[in-house]
Amino acid sequence: MKSDNSSxxxxxxxxxxxxxxxxxxxxxxxxxxxxxxxxxxxxxSYAEEQILPANRAVPVPPSIDPKVAASLMLKGTxxxxxxxxxxxxxxxxxxxxxxxxxxxxxxxxxxxxxLGATVIGTVSTKEKAAQAKEDGCHHVIIYKEEDxxxxxxxxxxxxxxxxxxxxxxxxxLRGYMVSFGQSSGAPDPVPLSAIAAKSLFLTRxxxxxxxxxxxxxxxxxxxxFANVASGILRVRVNHTYSLSEAAQxxxxxxxxxxxxxxxxxx
Length: 266
Fold this sequence. Notes:
Layout: E1 10-12, E2 15-19, E3 35-39, E4 58-59, H1 66-86, E5 94-98, H2 103-114, E6 118-123, H3 126-134, E7 139-142, H4 148-155, E8 158-162, E9 171-178, H5 192-196, E10 201-203, H6 207-210, H7 214-230, E11 237-242, H8 246-254, E12 261-265
Parallel strand pairs: 5-6, 5-8, 6-7, 8-9, 9-10, 11-12
Antiparallel strand pairs: 1-2, 2-3, 3-4
């Protein structure tokens, strides 16, 4: 893929969107000029050009802005497997989302709300609390000011929780605690006795294992794009950097100075 004057290529860590400029010999299904996106596998999106395996390139519908597609692929398909496959959220469930104002968190809150769940989000500032509220959180907890375990217990017992090992205390019988991604570092050890007390489920899934086949990847991306097109999901591209600022963009991500999504543009 390569950027040109009419269709820019946008970047977000290990996800990107761009125009196909050449295809390998004998390849069918993709052609020069197609707008495609990828996520999760094939490192190196901080680049002007990239060679991609054809089975990882997902066609982007005309209704989706390339910048949105670039910022959506990794986080959107992550939200999809967390809410629809790792644990199928349904009406009546209560969901706790840590870092609710982040890129994945924002999508999780909107999608879980649309599925009929009670959504509780934790954030670090009042500004992020306002965003989480807009994104569908029924209850927002500023964890620097409140004890989220106490607050969640006051609200409800959870069936599903994203990250935060203190969250084990607020899960109901047979609840799910899901930790994913590397931004928070390695998780602390959890004694089996803490899980057995309520027959809890603890998992640390990866998108790599939920989008192994091309069929799985296309199904996940298709559902995400459809939810954006229908208005269920609003993608917040809150930060834009030039490609020459890639190092600063990466540092801001690691230091939690961003909310929503960031993209790099040529």
